[in-house]
Design brief:
Radius of gyration: 23 Å
Structural class: alpha+beta
Distance between the termini: 45 Å
Shape: globular
Number of helices: 14
Largest sheet: 4 strands, antiparallel
Order of helices and strands: HHHHHEEEHEEEEHEEEHHHHHHHE
Number of strands: 11
Protein backbone atom coordinates (compact mmCIF):
# COMPACT_ATOMS: atom_id res chain seq x y z
CA UNK A 1 0.00 0.00 0.00
CA UNK A 2 2.82 2.40 0.79
CA UNK A 3 4.53 1.67 -2.51
CA UNK A 4 1.23 1.81 -4.37
CA UNK A 5 0.63 5.26 -2.88
CA UNK A 6 4.23 6.26 -3.76
CA UNK A 7 4.82 7.27 -0.15
CA UNK A 8 8.01 5.26 0.52
CA UNK A 9 10.81 7.33 2.04
CA UNK A 10 13.88 7.89 -0.12
CA UNK A 11 16.39 7.96 2.69
CA UNK A 12 16.79 6.51 6.15
CA UNK A 13 14.60 8.30 8.70
CA UNK A 14 13.95 7.91 12.41
CA UNK A 15 10.25 7.78 11.53
CA UNK A 16 10.00 5.45 8.52
CA UNK A 17 6.81 5.32 6.53
CA UNK A 18 5.71 1.98 7.93
CA UNK A 19 5.88 3.27 11.49
CA UNK A 20 4.18 6.55 10.60
CA UNK A 21 1.37 4.62 8.95
CA UNK A 22 0.69 2.69 12.16
CA UNK A 23 1.20 5.79 14.27
CA UNK A 24 -1.76 7.45 12.56
CA UNK A 25 -3.88 4.40 13.41
CA UNK A 26 -2.61 4.42 17.00
CA UNK A 27 -3.61 8.08 17.34
CA UNK A 28 -7.22 6.84 17.48
CA UNK A 29 -6.37 3.94 19.78
CA UNK A 30 -4.84 6.38 22.29
CA UNK A 31 -6.83 9.45 21.27
CA UNK A 32 -6.43 11.10 24.69
CA UNK A 33 -2.61 11.29 24.37
CA UNK A 34 -0.32 13.57 22.42
CA UNK A 35 1.91 12.50 19.54
CA UNK A 36 4.94 11.58 21.62
CA UNK A 37 3.05 9.44 24.14
CA UNK A 38 1.16 7.64 21.35
CA UNK A 39 4.50 6.83 19.73
CA UNK A 40 5.87 5.47 23.01
CA UNK A 41 2.79 3.27 23.47
CA UNK A 42 3.07 2.01 19.91
CA UNK A 43 6.78 1.12 19.76
CA UNK A 44 6.92 -0.66 23.12
CA UNK A 45 7.54 -4.25 22.09
CA UNK A 46 7.54 -3.75 18.32
CA UNK A 47 10.16 -5.61 16.34
CA UNK A 48 10.79 -5.53 12.60
CA UNK A 49 12.54 -8.56 11.16
CA UNK A 50 15.45 -7.36 9.03
CA UNK A 51 14.95 -3.72 9.95
CA UNK A 52 18.70 -3.36 10.73
CA UNK A 53 18.26 -0.52 13.18
CA UNK A 54 15.84 1.51 11.06
CA UNK A 55 12.94 1.09 13.42
CA UNK A 56 11.38 1.70 16.80
CA UNK A 57 14.55 2.31 18.83
CA UNK A 58 15.55 5.26 16.69
CA UNK A 59 11.95 6.50 16.45
CA UNK A 60 11.89 6.90 20.23
CA UNK A 61 13.71 10.20 19.87
CA UNK A 62 11.01 11.69 17.62
CA UNK A 63 9.16 14.73 18.87
CA UNK A 64 5.88 16.34 17.84
CA UNK A 65 7.39 18.50 15.11
CA UNK A 66 9.06 15.57 13.37
CA UNK A 67 5.88 13.49 13.69
CA UNK A 68 3.89 16.26 12.00
CA UNK A 69 6.35 16.32 9.11
CA UNK A 70 6.31 12.51 8.88
CA UNK A 71 2.53 12.57 8.63
CA UNK A 72 2.70 15.17 5.88
CA UNK A 73 5.13 12.96 3.93
CA UNK A 74 2.82 9.98 4.35
CA UNK A 75 -0.34 11.71 3.13
CA UNK A 76 -3.84 10.20 3.14
CA UNK A 77 -3.49 7.69 0.27
CA UNK A 78 -1.83 4.80 2.19
CA UNK A 79 -4.64 4.83 4.76
CA UNK A 80 -7.26 5.08 2.01
CA UNK A 81 -5.76 2.05 0.27
CA UNK A 82 -5.51 0.19 3.56
CA UNK A 83 -9.21 0.70 4.20
CA UNK A 84 -10.06 -0.48 0.69
CA UNK A 85 -8.24 -3.74 1.44
CA UNK A 86 -9.75 -4.43 4.87
CA UNK A 87 -13.35 -3.30 4.23
CA UNK A 88 -15.25 -6.57 4.00
CA UNK A 89 -18.09 -8.46 5.72
CA UNK A 90 -17.30 -10.50 8.81
CA UNK A 91 -20.63 -12.17 9.62
CA UNK A 92 -21.85 -15.58 8.54
CA UNK A 93 -25.34 -17.07 8.35
CA UNK A 94 -25.17 -17.86 12.06
CA UNK A 95 -24.87 -14.16 13.03
CA UNK A 96 -28.24 -12.55 13.82
CA UNK A 97 -29.21 -9.87 11.32
CA UNK A 98 -26.59 -10.73 8.69
CA UNK A 99 -28.80 -12.63 6.24
CA UNK A 100 -32.42 -12.76 5.18
CA UNK A 101 -33.59 -15.54 2.87
CA UNK A 102 -30.09 -16.04 1.51
CA UNK A 103 -29.33 -12.34 0.99
CA UNK A 104 -26.69 -10.51 3.00
CA UNK A 105 -28.21 -7.46 4.71
CA UNK A 106 -26.38 -4.15 4.60
CA UNK A 107 -27.20 -0.54 5.29
CA UNK A 108 -26.08 2.87 4.02
CA UNK A 109 -26.20 5.82 6.39
CA UNK A 110 -24.52 9.18 6.79
CA UNK A 111 -23.60 11.80 9.33
CA UNK A 112 -21.23 14.73 9.88
CA UNK A 113 -18.08 15.19 11.97
CA UNK A 114 -16.31 18.33 13.18
CA UNK A 115 -12.77 19.15 12.07
CA UNK A 116 -10.39 21.74 13.56
CA UNK A 117 -11.07 25.33 12.60
CA UNK A 118 -8.45 26.65 10.19
CA UNK A 119 -8.56 28.66 6.99
CA UNK A 120 -7.48 25.59 5.00
CA UNK A 121 -10.15 23.34 6.53
CA UNK A 122 -12.81 26.00 6.06
CA UNK A 123 -11.93 26.34 2.40
CA UNK A 124 -11.80 22.58 1.82
CA UNK A 125 -14.78 21.38 3.87
CA UNK A 126 -17.02 24.36 4.68
CA UNK A 127 -19.53 23.93 7.48
CA UNK A 128 -23.00 24.75 8.79
CA UNK A 129 -24.20 28.33 8.91
CA UNK A 130 -27.31 30.39 9.64
CA UNK A 131 -28.40 34.02 9.71
CA UNK A 132 -25.95 34.63 12.54
CA UNK A 133 -22.96 33.55 10.45
CA UNK A 134 -20.74 30.51 10.18
CA UNK A 135 -20.89 27.61 12.59
CA UNK A 136 -18.24 27.14 15.22
CA UNK A 137 -16.33 24.48 13.28
CA UNK A 138 -16.04 23.18 9.72
CA UNK A 139 -17.36 19.69 9.14
CA UNK A 140 -16.93 16.69 6.89
CA UNK A 141 -19.93 14.75 5.68
CA UNK A 142 -19.41 11.01 5.78
CA UNK A 143 -21.36 8.04 4.48
CA UNK A 144 -20.78 4.39 5.31
CA UNK A 145 -21.98 1.09 3.86
CA UNK A 146 -21.99 -1.62 6.52
CA UNK A 147 -23.09 -5.17 7.18
CA UNK A 148 -26.18 -5.13 9.40
CA UNK A 149 -25.46 -8.03 11.75
CA UNK A 150 -21.78 -7.46 12.50
CA UNK A 151 -21.65 -3.70 11.78
CA UNK A 152 -18.45 -4.29 9.80
CA UNK A 153 -17.74 -1.64 7.17
CA UNK A 154 -18.03 -2.59 3.51
CA UNK A 155 -17.29 0.86 2.13
CA UNK A 156 -17.05 4.51 3.17
CA UNK A 157 -16.83 7.94 1.59
CA UNK A 158 -16.56 11.48 2.89
CA UNK A 159 -16.24 15.02 1.57
CA UNK A 160 -17.07 18.57 2.54
CA UNK A 161 -20.15 19.56 4.49
CA UNK A 162 -22.04 20.67 1.36
CA UNK A 163 -21.62 17.30 -0.38
CA UNK A 164 -24.93 15.51 -0.88
CA UNK A 165 -25.30 12.01 0.49
CA UNK A 166 -26.65 10.90 -2.88
CA UNK A 167 -23.35 11.96 -4.42
CA UNK A 168 -21.30 10.27 -1.69
CA UNK A 169 -23.33 7.10 -2.24
CA UNK A 170 -21.85 6.79 -5.72
CA UNK A 171 -18.50 6.15 -4.02
CA UNK A 172 -19.72 3.09 -2.12
CA UNK A 173 -21.83 1.35 -4.78
CA UNK A 174 -18.88 -0.81 -5.78
CA UNK A 175 -18.85 -2.26 -2.26
CA UNK A 176 -22.09 -4.13 -3.02
CA UNK A 177 -21.23 -7.68 -3.96
CA UNK A 178 -23.12 -10.75 -5.19
CA UNK A 179 -25.83 -12.00 -2.87
CA UNK A 180 -26.36 -8.66 -1.14
CA UNK A 181 -29.71 -6.98 -0.69
CA UNK A 182 -28.86 -3.72 -2.40
CA UNK A 183 -30.43 -0.63 -3.95
CA UNK A 184 -31.42 -0.89 -7.63
CA UNK A 185 -29.34 0.86 -10.28
CA UNK A 186 -30.90 2.00 -13.52
CA UNK A 187 -28.96 2.46 -16.73
CA UNK A 188 -29.49 5.18 -19.30
CA UNK A 189 -32.78 6.24 -17.74
CA UNK A 190 -34.46 2.83 -18.11
CA UNK A 191 -37.52 2.49 -15.83
CA UNK A 192 -37.36 0.14 -12.87
CA UNK A 193 -40.37 -1.88 -11.82
CA UNK A 194 -40.82 -1.74 -8.06
CA UNK A 195 -43.14 -3.21 -5.50
CA UNK A 196 -44.58 -0.64 -3.08
CA UNK A 197 -45.56 -1.67 0.43
CA UNK A 198 -47.46 0.62 2.79
CA UNK A 199 -47.83 -0.06 6.49
CA UNK A 200 -48.47 1.54 9.85
CA UNK A 201 -47.25 0.71 13.34
CA UNK A 202 -49.78 0.33 16.14
CA UNK A 203 -48.76 0.48 19.80
CA UNK A 204 -50.89 0.06 22.90
CA UNK A 205 -50.32 1.41 26.39
CA UNK A 206 -52.34 2.51 29.41
CA UNK A 207 -53.60 5.52 27.44
CA UNK A 208 -55.01 3.44 24.62
CA UNK A 209 -54.03 2.61 21.07
CA UNK A 210 -51.73 4.76 18.96
CA UNK A 211 -51.16 4.65 15.21
CA UNK A 212 -48.04 5.85 13.45
CA UNK A 213 -47.81 7.75 10.21
CA UNK A 214 -47.96 5.80 6.97
CA UNK A 215 -44.66 4.18 5.99
CA UNK A 216 -43.95 3.39 2.35
CA UNK A 217 -41.27 0.97 1.18
CA UNK A 218 -40.25 0.35 -2.43
CA UNK A 219 -38.36 -2.78 -3.47
CA UNK A 220 -37.42 -4.65 -6.62
CA UNK A 221 -38.13 -7.96 -4.85
CA UNK A 222 -41.34 -8.48 -6.79
CA UNK A 223 -42.30 -12.09 -6.07
CA UNK A 224 -44.62 -12.13 -3.02
CA UNK A 225 -44.09 -15.86 -2.56
CA UNK A 226 -40.28 -15.68 -2.47
CA UNK A 227 -40.25 -12.38 -0.55
CA UNK A 228 -43.27 -12.37 1.81
CA UNK A 229 -44.89 -9.02 2.42
CA UNK A 230 -45.22 -9.67 6.17
CA UNK A 231 -41.46 -9.89 6.65
CA UNK A 232 -40.32 -6.85 4.71
CA UNK A 233 -41.53 -4.18 7.21
CA UNK A 234 -39.74 -6.04 10.02
CA UNK A 235 -36.68 -6.24 7.79
CA UNK A 236 -36.70 -2.48 7.24
CA UNK A 237 -36.01 -1.82 10.90
CA UNK A 238 -32.61 -3.48 10.55
CA UNK A 239 -31.55 -0.17 8.98
CA UNK A 240 -31.35 1.25 12.50
CA UNK A 241 -28.16 -0.75 12.91
CA UNK A 242 -26.63 1.91 10.69
CA UNK A 243 -27.52 4.52 13.28
CA UNK A 244 -25.94 2.52 16.09
CA UNK A 245 -22.86 1.92 13.93
CA UNK A 246 -22.38 5.66 13.41
CA UNK A 247 -22.83 6.16 17.13
CA UNK A 248 -20.00 3.67 17.74
CA UNK A 249 -17.75 5.41 15.20
CA UNK A 250 -18.43 8.90 16.54
CA UNK A 251 -18.57 8.07 20.26
CA UNK A 252 -16.69 4.88 21.13
CA UNK A 253 -13.88 5.16 18.56
CA UNK A 254 -13.77 8.88 17.78
CA UNK A 255 -14.46 9.95 21.37
CA UNK A 256 -17.62 12.03 21.02
CA UNK A 257 -18.40 15.62 20.13
CA UNK A 258 -15.70 16.97 22.45
CA UNK A 259 -12.91 15.22 20.53
CA UNK A 260 -11.65 16.80 17.30
CA UNK A 261 -9.31 15.58 14.63
CA UNK A 262 -5.76 16.78 15.23
CA UNK A 263 -5.02 18.15 11.78
CA UNK A 264 -5.49 21.74 10.68
CA UNK A 265 -4.76 20.80 7.07
CA UNK A 266 -7.25 19.08 4.73
CA UNK A 267 -4.75 16.35 3.78
CA UNK A 268 -4.12 15.57 7.44
CA UNK A 269 -7.85 15.54 8.20
CA UNK A 270 -8.46 13.09 5.35
CA UNK A 271 -5.62 10.92 6.61
CA UNK A 272 -7.20 10.78 10.07
CA UNK A 273 -10.64 9.99 8.67
CA UNK A 274 -9.32 6.97 6.74
CA UNK A 275 -7.40 5.89 9.85
CA UNK A 276 -10.61 6.16 11.88
CA UNK A 277 -12.40 3.84 9.45
CA UNK A 278 -9.45 1.42 9.48
CA UNK A 279 -9.34 1.23 13.26
CA UNK A 280 -13.10 0.79 13.50
CA UNK A 281 -12.88 -2.09 11.01
CA UNK A 282 -10.09 -3.72 13.00
CA UNK A 283 -12.22 -3.54 16.15
CA UNK A 284 -15.25 -4.91 14.23
CA UNK A 285 -13.11 -7.90 13.18
CA UNK A 286 -11.99 -8.39 16.78
CA UNK A 287 -15.60 -8.28 18.02
CA UNK A 288 -16.70 -10.75 15.32
CA UNK A 289 -13.86 -13.13 16.19
CA UNK A 290 -14.78 -13.06 19.86
CA UNK A 291 -18.51 -13.49 19.12
CA UNK A 292 -17.76 -16.46 16.85
CA UNK A 293 -15.44 -18.01 19.44
CA UNK A 294 -18.01 -17.76 22.25
CA UNK A 295 -21.03 -18.29 19.95
CA UNK A 296 -22.81 -15.15 21.07
CA UNK A 297 -24.42 -12.19 19.34
CA UNK A 298 -21.81 -9.51 18.43
CA UNK A 299 -24.17 -6.93 19.97
CA UNK A 300 -23.27 -8.36 23.39
CA UNK A 301 -19.63 -7.24 23.02
CA UNK A 302 -19.01 -3.53 23.37
CA UNK A 303 -16.56 -1.66 21.18
CA UNK A 304 -14.93 0.07 24.19
CA UNK A 305 -14.10 -3.42 25.49
CA UNK A 306 -12.58 -4.31 22.10
CA UNK A 307 -10.63 -1.04 22.02
CA UNK A 308 -9.19 -1.72 25.47
CA UNK A 309 -8.21 -5.23 24.37
CA UNK A 310 -6.44 -3.79 21.33
CA UNK A 311 -4.57 -1.31 23.53
CA UNK A 312 -3.39 -4.11 25.81
CA UNK A 313 -2.30 -6.20 22.82
CA UNK A 314 -0.34 -3.51 20.99
CA UNK A 315 2.90 -3.84 23.06
CA UNK A 316 2.96 -7.60 22.30
CA UNK A 317 2.89 -7.23 18.53
CA UNK A 318 6.06 -8.71 17.06
CA UNK A 319 5.21 -9.36 13.41
CA UNK A 320 3.05 -8.46 10.42
CA UNK A 321 3.98 -4.79 10.52
CA UNK A 322 2.33 -2.70 9.21
CA UNK A 323 -1.26 -4.01 9.41
CA UNK A 324 -2.72 -5.94 6.51
CA UNK A 325 -5.95 -7.89 5.99
CA UNK A 326 -3.91 -11.09 6.36
CA UNK A 327 -2.47 -10.04 9.70
CA UNK A 328 -2.81 -12.49 12.55
CA UNK A 329 -5.35 -10.97 14.92
CA UNK A 330 -5.16 -11.58 18.67
CA UNK A 331 -6.96 -14.68 19.89
CA UNK A 332 -10.38 -13.52 21.15
CA UNK A 333 -10.24 -15.91 24.09
CA UNK A 334 -7.24 -14.01 25.42
CA UNK A 335 -8.35 -10.49 24.61
CA UNK A 336 -12.10 -10.18 25.00
CA UNK A 337 -14.08 -12.12 27.58
CA UNK A 338 -17.84 -12.49 27.08
CA UNK A 339 -20.17 -10.68 29.46
CA UNK A 340 -20.82 -12.62 32.64
CA UNK A 341 -24.39 -13.75 33.22
CA UNK A 342 -24.06 -12.51 36.78
CA UNK A 343 -23.15 -9.01 35.63
CA UNK A 344 -25.80 -6.38 35.09
CA UNK A 345 -25.36 -5.18 31.53
CA UNK A 346 -25.93 -1.63 30.50
CA UNK A 347 -28.72 -1.34 27.94
CA UNK A 348 -27.83 -0.54 24.37
CA UNK A 349 -28.15 3.18 23.61
CA UNK A 350 -31.21 4.27 21.69
CA UNK A 351 -30.26 4.81 18.04
CA UNK A 352 -29.30 8.43 17.57
CA UNK A 353 -30.51 10.30 14.54
CA UNK A 354 -27.88 11.20 11.99
CA UNK A 355 -27.51 14.84 11.05
CA UNK A 356 -29.54 14.96 7.86
CA UNK A 357 -31.21 17.81 6.02
CA UNK A 358 -34.86 18.35 6.86
CA UNK A 359 -35.84 17.34 3.34
CA UNK A 360 -34.64 13.78 3.89
CA UNK A 361 -36.59 10.58 4.36
CA UNK A 362 -39.46 11.06 6.85
CA UNK A 363 -38.32 7.89 8.61
CA UNK A 364 -35.19 9.76 9.73
CA UNK A 365 -37.23 12.34 11.61
CA UNK A 366 -39.97 10.07 12.94
CA UNK A 367 -38.30 6.88 14.13
CA UNK A 368 -40.59 3.89 14.71
CA UNK A 369 -42.17 3.51 18.09
CA UNK A 370 -40.40 1.88 20.99
CA UNK A 371 -42.33 -1.31 20.39
CA UNK A 372 -40.85 -1.57 16.91
CA UNK A 373 -37.25 -0.70 17.73
CA UNK A 374 -36.67 -2.53 20.99
CA UNK A 375 -33.26 -4.14 21.43
CA UNK A 376 -34.87 -7.60 21.53
CA UNK A 377 -36.38 -7.14 18.07
CA UNK A 378 -33.05 -6.10 16.60
CA UNK A 379 -31.53 -9.32 17.88
CA UNK A 380 -34.14 -11.79 16.68
CA UNK A 381 -32.62 -14.57 14.63
CA UNK A 382 -35.78 -15.01 12.55
CA UNK A 383 -38.26 -12.44 11.41
CA UNK A 384 -41.81 -13.06 12.63
CA UNK A 385 -44.22 -14.40 10.05
CA UNK A 386 -46.80 -11.80 11.14
CA UNK A 387 -45.33 -8.69 12.80
CA UNK A 388 -47.54 -7.83 15.79
CA UNK A 389 -49.37 -4.55 15.77
CA UNK A 390 -48.87 -3.89 12.07
CA UNK A 391 -51.32 -3.23 9.33
CA UNK A 392 -49.71 -4.02 5.99
CA UNK A 393 -51.00 -3.81 2.46
CA UNK A 394 -49.32 -4.17 -0.90
CA UNK A 395 -49.92 -1.92 -3.88
CA UNK A 396 -49.73 -2.90 -7.49
CA UNK A 397 -46.21 -2.92 -8.91
CA UNK A 398 -45.51 0.36 -10.66
CA UNK A 399 -42.88 1.17 -13.27
Amino acid sequence: MIDEAKARERRKRSLPTRLTDCLVLAMWLWREHGYEEVLRQLIDGLAWPGAEGDGPDEADVAWSGSITRARARLGPDPLRLMFARVADPTGGPEVPGCFWRGLRLSVIDGSTMDVPDSDENRAAFDGPSNDGGLGALPQVRLLVHAECGSKALLGAAFDGYRAAETVLAQGVLDSFGPGMLKPPRKKDGDPITVRVIEYTVTTRDEHGEHHSELFCLATTLLDPEAWPIEQIPALYHERWRGETLLDVVKTDVHGGADVLLRSHSPAGARQEMWALFCLYQALAHLVSDAARHYRIDPDRISFPRARNAARRSAPRIQRTFSPSPDATRPRPARTIQPPSHQTTHQPQPHPRRSTRDTAGNPHDHHPPSQASTSHDRLRKRHYPSTPPGRSVRQLTSVP
